[in-house]
Design goal:
The complex is a heterodimer of chains A (484) and B (236). With 484 residues, chain A is of the alpha/beta class. Chain A contains 17 helices and 19 strands. Chain B has 236 residues and is of the alpha+beta class. In chain B, 33% of the residues lie in helices and 27% in strands. Chain B has 7 helices and 10 strands. In chain B, the strands form 2 sheets. In chain B, strands 5, 6, 7, 8, 9 and 10 form a 6-stranded antiparallel β-sheet that branches. Chain B has a 4-stranded antiparallel β-sheet with strand order 1-4-2-3, with helices on both faces. In chain B, β8 and β9 form a beta hairpin. In chain B, α6 packs across α7. The radius of gyration of chain B is 18 Å and the shape is globular. The model of chain B has no long low-confidence stretch (mean pLDDT 91). Classes of the chains: A alpha/beta (484), B alpha+beta (236). At the A-B interface, α8 and α10 of A face β7 and α6 of B.
Chain lengths: 484, 236
């Protein structure tokens, strides 16, 4: 695997090598050339959206295949993939299901090694579809690698490869960033990307594998583990479908988790939902308890919902790992401080009372009404300078392995400059998360400044607490924590 | 790693049985160093009196029959047998009970089993999931498992760390550390049993279901025993 990574680098540098073989998944995510089978100028169709996506954004060669057209707007259409002269790294297939076996055969003949079959109408629609899927399985076996069928494929913000057939005005595209998403549901993947784009969360890579005829979540996880652009992997899963594949996924997750954090949200936890999972994915939902056990055993961090998963991912992608579970809570609102302590304590994190001597130092500089035990409450008379003073005094001590900062910016003494002080506190190499709440433009500016400088912002204390918990959990997994 | 099918399981399947007899279950556990009480399979009173000399009193006497599922329902189990006289009458009583309540049951013999000292009752169970393969469950015995569903699961193969974390995951774990006049329990002994049980399951893919119930956990340093075991064989 590592060898292939090197080969890829050499490939990009254009070196001549005896063996220049990119892995099939490399071709899936980083192809130099893509053919769209079922390309069309009709904008409001699946093939049309994919065609437009790639023509406008993809940084590589594109070939369009559709026998109905010769040329549209100066762009050539080929009758079949076999008419394309050049080598093709990746084929995207978006034709009606009955035509899929034939065009897949043509891809194999052409020498294409990896394909995304977007088309639906297979095992997810009943017995006829299942038969068609079996026919397809026989065709592809060991001859070509397949993502799908019945999937929305790949989004790669780095190179503009985007087979998500949801129009740009309906689904925003997130900026390139350190989070990678693996989703069993296509619609959920689309909604997540739209949501992340709105919140300026960088999701560099996203993939939906649909019916999983061939390429599985395990293989994708392994691939993302080796991609240095990816810092955190978020997985949305409903259920596995093949006999024995649970063990494989467990093994892979365990290995990947030792390299980088994996956050998983498994939906279909209740008995009521298992029927829905079964009809949705044609998978045996199985007992949630077993999935829960697998996630524990695999050292992945389990999220309770999608927002949770991204709250944690944001911190895992940007913050150093804590050495212990002690949290400094610094606030300008006593009430918010209490909520933070509740949430931290419920997750097993400590808010230790500061030593008398440390409190004495703080008291000399802070207003008389300020509370200095931890949580440190600067009250409504807080200023930027007070936050800076507390951070600079307490963060270097052993009382704080990490910091949860609450800044309700509605207070007159606070300014955008507070954000700069918080960003400067990154030099202590301890995780910092910020709680901010409010709707005005000034608050938004403050929050954006923090996020752009690698400090995650949350709109409620319990969400920030959970993000710190995830950092501590992963620190334990990596074995960097020390016992108190 | 056992090559081929375990002879105990092969014998059961040969005889058309999908359930191991009690002494077979114990023997299988012994192969994996899982502690079981000293036991012997005997056919009659004379054999029982001879075997008890090695095992020592007190013992439990249980009927062994491929036709009886719930032994205690038909009076097939007598606990706390303390001397030769009691042992004689226990054999007699079980025979009479079976004759009366389950007259057509074949009797393969009697299992003579050393009584295990009292301790914390736990359950170590296993099922085979179509997706994940063997899954091991752990919980405290009795109502804790059934009513409170205070159980944790892990997927085979299970490492020692996995076993430790599944023990600590249950709510009743506090009992392992001692409480008031209850002494702390031998947690490492149960960690050992779970990891060995995992090995047993890995080697025998055709085990469909298994229950070590109860597993008695003694005081710290004194070990743990599977006091009763049940194995159901399925397809691989």
């Amino acid at each position: 695997m590592i060898l292939m990574e090197e080969q890829r680098t050499d490939l990009q540098q254009g070196k001549q090598m005896d063996v220049m073989i990119a892995s099939p998944l490399d071709l899936l995510f980083n192809p130099r050339s893509v053919v769209i089978i079922g390309a069309t100028p009709r904008e409001n169709s699946v093939g049309g959206v994919i065609t437009k996506n790639l023509l406008t954004k993809f940084k590589g060669k594109i070939y369009l295949v559709n026998p109905k057209y010769d040329e549209v707007n100066g762009i050539k259409y080929y009758k079949t993939i076999l008419d394309v002269q050049d080598d093709v790294d990746l084929a995207v297939i978006a034709v009606p299901a009955p035509a899929v076996p034939k065009v897949t055969e043509e891809c194999i003949k052409k020498g294409v090694r990896t394909t995304i079959i977007i088309s639906g109408g297979f095992s997810e629609v009943g017995e006829d579809g299942a038969r068609l899927e079996e026919e397809l399985r026989r065709i592809v076996q060991n001859r070509i690698r397949v993502l799908g069928p019945n999937c929305i494929g790949v989004y790669n913000a780095f190179n503009g490869l985007d087979t998500f057939f949801l129009p740009e005005d309906r689904m925003g595209r997130p900026r390139p960033g350190p989070v990678a998403l693996i989703s069993q549901s296509g619609a959920v993947a689309g909604a997540i990307l739209d949501w992340a784009a709105r919140r300026n969360i960088g999701v560099g890579l996203a993939v939906n594998y649909g019916n999983k005829l061939d390429i599985s979540e395990s293989e994708i996880l392994e691939y993302f583990a080796r991609d240095n652009r990816v810092k955190v992997i978020v997985m949305y899963m409903e259920g596995l479908k093949y006999s024995g594949e649970g063990k494989k996924l467990l093994e892979v997750m365990k290995e990947v988790s030792s390299i980088k954090p994996v956050v998983v949200y498994k939906a279909g936890r209740t008995k009521a939902a298992t029927g829905a999972v079964k009809s949705h994915t044609a998978a045996l939902a199985g007992n949630y308890e077993i999935y829960h056990a697998m996630l524990r055993q695999a050292n992945v961090i389990e999220a309770d919902n999608i927002t949770d998963a991204f709250d944690m991912a944001k911190a895992l992608a940007t913050q150093p790992l804590p050495r212990g579970n002690r949290v400094l809570v610094l606030t300008d609102s006593g009430g918010m401080g209490i909520q933070a302590v509740d949430a931290l304590d419920m997750r097993g994190l400590q808010v230790p009372e500061l030593s008398e001597s440390l409190q004495e130092i703080l008291r000399k500089q802070l207003p008389p009404l300020a509370v200095t035990r931890n949580p440190i409450d600067l009250t409504g008379s807080a200023t930027d300078a007070m936050y800076k003073f507390v951070l600079d005094t307490v963060l270097p001590t052993s009382y704080a392995d990490m910091a949860l900062i609450i800044a309700l910016m509605q207070i007159p003494g606070l300014s955008i400059n507070l954000g700069n002080y918080i960003v400067e506190a990154r030099r202590f190499n301890k995780p910092i998360v910020v709680v901010s709440f409010g709707g005005n433009e000034y608050v938004a500016k403050f929050e954006n400044n923090l996020e752009e400088n690698g400090i995650p912002v949350y709109h409620a204390p319990h969400r920030a607490a959970k993000a710190l918990w995830a950092l501590y959990e992963y620190a334990k997994i990596k074995g960097v924590t020390k016992e108190w | 790693m056992v090559i081929g099918m375990n002879p105990i399981i092969a014998k059961a399947l040969d005889e058309g049985r999908y359930k191991l007899l009690e002494h077979e279950s114990f023997e299988l556990l012994r192969q994996y160093n899982i502690p079981v009480p000293d036991f012997a399979l005997v056919q009659n009173v004379d054999e029982a009196l001879k075997a008890v000399k090695d095992i020592g009193y007190p013992v439990a006497l249980k009927v062994v029959s491929p036709d009886i599922i719930h032994k205690s329902d038909v009076g097939g189990v007598i606990l706390n047998v303390n001397n030769d006289d009691e042992l004689r009458s226990a054999c007699e009583r079980i025979r009479n009970n079976i004759r009366e309540k389950s007259p057509y049951a074949r009797i393969s013999g009697f299992l003579l089993q050393r009584m295990v000292p009292e301790g914390l009752e736990t359950i170590v169970g296993a099922t085979k999931d179509p997706i994940f393969g063997h899954v091991i469950a752990f919980g405290l015995g009795g109502i804790m498992v059934e009513v409170l569903q205070d159980v944790s699961f892990r997927i085979v193969p299970i490492t020692e760390d996995d076993a430790r974390s599944m023990i600590r995951e249950i709510k009743g774990y506090r009992l392992f550390n001692g409480y008031r006049n209850i002494l702390a329990r031998d947690e490492e002994a149960i960690v050992y049993i779970i990891t060995k049980f995992s090995e047993l399951l890995s080697d025998n893919p055709n085990i469909a279901e298994a229950d070590l119930n109860p597993v008695i956990v003694l005081e710290r340093g004194k070990g743990a025993y599977a006091a009763d075991a049940r194995f159901i064989i399925g397809s691989t």
